[in-house]
Amino acid sequence: MSVGSWDLGPHAAFILGAYGFTALVIAGLVVHAILDRRAQERALARLQEEPPRGRR
C-alpha cells in the first residue's frame, strides 16, 4: 500500500493504525490538560476569595 510518497508495504494498516491511535491519545491528553487547567483555575479563584485562616 502506498500513502502519498510512502511505501508502507504489507504492514500499512498496522502503521497507519498506530499513528491514528497515537494521535487520539495525544489529543485526549491535550483536552484533559485544558480541562484540568480550567478546574484548577476555578479552585484557585475560590480559595483566593475565602478570608485567610489565622493560626490558633
Describe the structure in brief:
This protein has one helix at 12-49, and strands at residues 2-3, 6-7. It is mainly α and 56 residues long. The mean pLDDT is 91.
How much of the sequence lies in strands comes to 5-15%
What proportion of the residues is helical, as a percent range?
55-70%
Outline, from the CA principal axes? rod-shaped
Mean pLDDT: 91
| Overall radius of gyration | 23 Å
Low-confidence stretches: none
The ordered string of helix (H) and strand (E) elements is: EEH
The strand line-up of the biggest sheet is 1-2
Give me the number of helical elements.
1
Distance between the first and last residues' Cα: 73 Å
| Main beta-sheet strand count, sense and barrel state | 2 strands, antiparallel
Give the strand tally. Answer: 2
Structural class: mainly alpha
Protein name: Heme exporter protein D
Pfam families: CcmD (PF04995)
InterPro entries: Haem_export_protD_CcmD (IPR007078)
Membrane topology: Single-pass membrane protein
Question: Helices and strands in order, then pairings?
Answer:
Elements: E1 2-3, E2 6-7, H1 12-49
Antiparallel strand pairs: 1-2
Report on the architecture of this protein.
A hairpin with a 2-residue loop joins strand 1 and strand 2. This protein has 1 helix and 2 strands. The mean pLDDT is 91. The protein has a domain at 20-48. By secondary structure, the protein is mainly alpha-helical. It has a two-stranded antiparallel sheet. The termini are far apart. 68% of the residues lie in helices and 7% in strands.
